[in-house]
Amino acid sequence: MKATNRTSKKTPAKRFKGISSDAIALNVGRVHLWQVLTGRRESKPLLARLADLKKQQAKTGIQIPAKKPLVPIPIELAAAENLAPFFFNTLAKLKLEVIIVRFDASKDSPIWKQVGIELELERELQSVQAGFFDSSYFPMGAQWHFFHVGRPALGKAMQAIKSALDARGLLPFTTLLHAESPGELREWYPGNTAAMISADADTEA
Hints:
- The chain has seven helices and six strands, in the order αααααβαββαβββ.
- The protein has helices at 19-26, 30-37, 44-60, 76-80, 85-93, 117-127, 154-167, and strands at 96-104, 131-137, 142-150, 174-181, 184-189, 195-198.
């Protein structure tokens, strides 16, 4: 009987077929979904939504292509996770800050003419290598868009967003917020960085 030579091999990163398309359909980041699937993050609601998505794909045989939609999908859960203590602390360990761009979305607000504004702001952030868009929340009369920004680039990111909104005439309808903790948001515009508000403010607006 011949002896078998065994060599240790590094375990490759686990792959999930269609994860990019699934992440877009669920309106979450691909990395976030991968970390939930591999157990690095915990999100039972996201796993439940993914299971429902897979059932729909199995019935229809259709998989959403890996391309970002121009119109945001209003899934409140994805946005709410940004202010959930566990996920917020995970972002902090990764040295990522949460910026929120809140728009007045009353009937006559010009924001309704700015379809895909969150993706335009993401491009502005990426142009200065500061961050990326995560998810959106659409309560009555408002739009909340969440962005993840590298801690050292926080000031640069705020300025890039503010300049982009000013160029589009949207500043009068905008509040820029930074999540200091899962329960507290700091207002950067209008006003100043000393203004603190509750993270629950306006969620029922």
